[in-house]
Design goal:
Length: 71
């Protein structure tokens, strides 16, 4: 991932996730063995996160191109 794309992803996360009451409204829940994780779609990239409700923390687990982020 180039520096420009990384900047876009960080900017998107700050604009949409930082300070929001329900971070799930912008994402989609994963299924099967990743059922505790959520996905944010940012262009051709995906950010896989875990959301801790008791502390309102969103932890980025993996960031990558949609083709290989789920490997």
């Amino acid at each position: 991932m180039d520096k420009y794309q990384a900047t876009l992803i960080v900017r998107w996360l700050y604009q949409h996730i930082d300070g929001v009451d329900d971070p799930r409204k912008f994402g989609k829940g994963l299924t099967a063995n990743c059922s505790e994780q959520w996905r944010y779609r940012i262009g051709k990239y995906r950010v896989l996160v875990e959301i801790e409700d008791d502390q309102m923390v969103v932890i980025a687990i993996q960031v990558g191109h949609r083709r290989n982020v789920y490997d």
